[in-house]
Write a structure and sequence with these properties.
single chain, alpha/beta, Purple Acid Phosphatase, chain A, domain 2, 6-stranded mixed sheet, 25% helix
Amino acid sequence: MPRLLFIGDIVGRPGRDLIRERLPKLREELGADFVVANGENAAAGAGITATIAHELLASGVDVVTLGDHVWDQRGFDKEIVGLDKVCRPANLPSQCPGRTFIVVEKDGVRLGICTLLGSAFMKIEADSAFHMIDAFIEKIKGQCDALLVELHAEATSEKVAMGWYLDGRATLVAGTHTHIPTADEIVLPRGTAYITDVGMTGPYQSILGREVAGVLGRFLDGMPRRWEIASGDMRLCGCVVDFTPKGMATSIKRVDLRV
């Protein structure tokens, strides 16, 4: 039975180092056929570069997904066109560069990957994920046997709603963006695995991956200051999903590898 490992937001160099050092062994131990990871915070906590994308792919990630920080690194809009294993949010304006959907194959099973941005409380221009996902699934029908839909969103309710909306049509609906792992993993009645947020891969002795003092100070006095990447309590977080060759999930388990 095919197995998918989905890894939550990789934060800065500490998160990248953890992927490089631990992912190859973890992939082998889990017997993961496919590994997908969100890399939108991989460059100093905001965005990604082509060099970093290649580094993650060389460490054992099959496909890198992105989110609302997709364009934070200068020049990445030019670099992304040459990255065939990097997937930008599909509901960004159509004129944006980059791939909206990627298919990887293992032992005759084709896994499709797409990522979507939520609408509630998000500060980036994007179409409604709900308004475009039906046509999107119809368009890619026949190109894949299983489908991972990542919803990079702030609102818990929006993620839960997408899980139910795609039940029976996606193999996994996984939430990212909020960096805190949730304990609501479930296989929904029609065979879609769901989790509200898989958490981040990076330092948990932090505030969402940043040093506590800087972020806390901003809450206290509102003054601007640098938010440095933290380094304590390193964890690789995500989920692992078993699914049938026809793309229906049979199990989902959280992954929380602590260093």
